[in-house]
Design a protein that fits this description.
Layout lengths: L6 E2 L8 E5 L4 E7 L5 E8 L1 H4 L7 H22 L9 E7 L3 H18 L3 E5 H7 L12 E6 L4 E6 L5 E6 L5 H11 L6 H9 L24 H12 L3 H6 L1 H27 L3 E5 L6 H14 L2 E3 L11 H12 L2 E2 L16 E2 L1
Length: 353
């Protein structure tokens, strides 16, 4: 049973559900049909709001969510060709994330649930990312290993046949997405940093400038990227300005290669140690073109089943929240209307082994 925060639900009439996501800087809403098919997936990005600051400003993010959440939700219903009264449940990101941003989504979801007299469930953001692996591949097998890799998270899970997840490894410092963003800042690239490095790295040689890859102690499935960021800083400081400018693409390619190689090797190490034959890689960083290429090559060479969600379901979106919420409602869970946001929420299913 999927572990969503909530209370036992005596009865739920399956039907379309609305997902709401406001954990960071995307205001998103999605409608799923009774069979789990995605009927709409609307995302309003705040990149233009935060770009001049080089990162997300929490207060500005909260205000932007307030301004757009009603419009985005209405657009999701319109795209799905449904009315508010057609909804049978609401799923909303409860955490982790920015406190103010989460509050916007949670309070809006509660108001809708009350007005429509339908249940609401709170979903862990990580739980949503994991659910995205099955959005367009409902037959993806269990058990499997899931790598959640995003701006704030780098986690490896073993997902059991029951759906329960056990934490195998996580980052000890910077998440992979955070390492991409900080590396982009050092290279003088625009925000958001991950996509900027991805684009520039295609023009560079990943073997021209080799950066260290941290694997920690033998057999560890934990990650560490802070040392890589420091290595980039020191290498740039030791390079002339002219050389830095002329070789920026090589710096981006080498830095990216160090991150994605560790991600791939750790993910497959988890697969081998767990004895499974399926790997799902989800989260914003799973949109990285070099990571996707290496994963596909490795999976093909080892005869492994691989799930890489379409790009629309990699970054923060509400379809994944609706998918996790649908599983929760089917399992008989709901939240009370005093549900609150939890910025540092630790996903209930994540238990270290």
């Amino acid at each position: 049973m999927i572990a969503t925060l909530g209370e036992p639900l005596t009865a739920w009439m399956p039907g379309p559900i609305l997902g709401i996501e406001t954990s960071c800087d995307e205001t998103a809403a999605s409608v799923l049909a009774v069979d789990g098919a995605v009927l709409s997936n609307i995302i309003s990005s705040q990149h233009a709001v935060h770009q001049r600051f080089g990162g997300v400003v929490p207060e500005l993010a909260s205000r932007a969510h307030i301004e757009s959440i009603e419009t985005v939700s209405a657009a999701a219903l319109q795209q799905a060709s449904l009315a508010w009264v057609d909804l049978t449940g609401i799923a909303v990101t409860q955490g982790p994330g920015l406190a103010g941003a989460l509050l916007v989504g949670v309070n809006y979801a509660k108001a809708l649930a009350y007005a429509l007299s339908i249940p609401v469930v709170g979903v862990s953001h990580l739980e949503g990312h994991i659910a995205s692996a099955w959005l367009q591949d409902s037959a993806f097998p269990l058990p499997c290993v899931v790598l959640v890799v995003s701006g704030g998270h780098t986690h490896l899970y073993y997902k059991e046949p029951s759906g329960h997840c056990r934490l195998l490894g996580s980052t000890r410092d910077d998440a992979a997405g955070e390492a991409f963003d900080k590396g982009a800042q050092l290279l003088g690239l625009e925000y958001p940093g991950g996509p900027a490095i991805d684009r520039l790295a295609r023009l560079g040689n990943p073997g021209a400038i080799v950066f260290p890859q941290s694997y920690l102690k033998k057999g560890s499935l934990d990650f560490s990227f802070s040392g890589l960021k420091t290595a980039l800083l020191y290498t740039l400081q030791a390079t002339s300005e002219q050389s830095r400018i002329s070789r920026t693409a090589d710096f981006a390619a080498g830095y990216q290669e160090a991150i994605v190689t560790v991600l791939v090797n750790k993910a497959f190490a988890a697969v081998h140690s767990s004895g499974v034959h399926a790997l799902a890689v989800v989260g914003g960083v799973s949109a990285n073109s070099r990571l996707r290429a290496l994963l596909e090559q490795r999976a093909a060479s080892e005869g492994l089943r691989l799930s890489l969600p379409p790009l629309a379901y990699c970054t923060d979106n509400a379809a994944m929240i609706a998918a996790a919420g649908r599983q929760a409602l089917r399992a008989g869970l709901r939240a009370s209307l005093d549900i609150d946001a939890h910025a540092s929420l630790v996903s209930p299913f994540a238990q270290a082994i």
